[in-house]
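tool_call predict_complex ligand=guanine
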Amino acid sequence: MNAIYKALIFSPKNEHTLTVLNPGYLVVSKTGLMEYVGKKDPRRKYKGYKFFDYSDRLICPGFVDTHNHLPQYAFAGIGDKDLLPWLENYTFPREKMFAKKEEAQKSAKIFFGDLIKNGTTTTLTYATIHKSATDIAFQAAKKAGLRAVIGKVMMDQNSPAYLTENTRQSLADCQELIEKWHGHGGRLFYALTPRFAITCSFKLMEAVGKMARETGAYIQTHLSENLGEIAFTKKLFPKYRNYTDVYDKAGLLGPKTIMAHCIYLGEAEQKRIKETGTKISHCPTSNRFLSSGIMPFRHYRQTGLCMGLGTDVAGGYSLSMLNEMKEAIENSKLLAVFSKGKMAPPMTLPEAFYLATLGGAKVLSMEKQTGSLEAGKQADFLVIDHRKADPARQKSLYMKPEQILSKLIYRGTAEMIEQVFVGGKKLN
Ligand code: GUN
Ligand code: FE
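tool_result ok
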């Protein structure tokens, strides 16, 4: 449907600047593209378009969650151990359940439904090692209508017997899933997903790099999240200079590779991440919840690394990208204080907003399609009743754009997100 929306409009201009239109207009074509975003009333030019007056609402781009685990959503909120025992005690036994079709179906439907409720319109998601459960996840994402990059987890060593794959079979399953889903409908894509170096043989990782180059699929994995994990990786791969070097020598780094966490990267590792155009998913909630650490955001920015935000559910306890922005800023403040200013200044509100929208789109090489409100892009946007974040219910107070953004990030909830659009179509 051709439509015009009038609202307070926020969109990231760049990492430091928020574009604010008050009021602004968003014109969406039947095909789901934005035709015009601006201050001038477009109603005379776009005749016959249905007009929606949301003058008392906020419209902003849909959020991009660059790292999460579908099967783990069931135990979100439980983080009583740090990474390696947490994987053994909670993650692996839960992921085993996805051998059952019914469990995979039920969980996938809830997961994508809740992502949409939280305003996430693009997601990068881990399934489990099961081909059928991964296929079911794609089907559920297709039905839900959001943009999704999904991958079957790969593990062929150091995993419980019930989750250890045969290397060749693992690769063959991925090849099949890529052929079926990579590029499907322009919204669904495949990510080769070697879980992390500990659970992957070098042979498997090398074959993943080759398959990604041949098919154009994404790669997602975990890097430098936890000190115990880093020590174990060094022991398993003693020939390599550092953790990043293991992935580098296996041919896994590149512009379509997304590394989650990256808390403890040394200078040489940062240099290779930058040179290869590899992307980082910053997961501040998870990093605190699993006592992993605090990623030095300001330092990485100054180094020029490309980052987005990831909830890492269930390392993170919430699918809310509003919460993720808040945690990103709060973690960054702590680091600024405890580093005695070396890691200052902390992340700003517009920077957090950028990471959750256009920054995330860049991480997924989708910045031409989504992440900001601009003519020519897909109409992926949210209608939010931002007034509900105002405890005094006094609309006239604290109405500067940065104050509205601040309240949204610190006090925003899924209930305030009234409408969620992907490609111009309402999903909720
Ligand atoms: N490292 C390897 N697997 C996982 C996982 O499932 N969650 C997190 N947070 N880190 C991991
Ligand atoms: Fe993770």
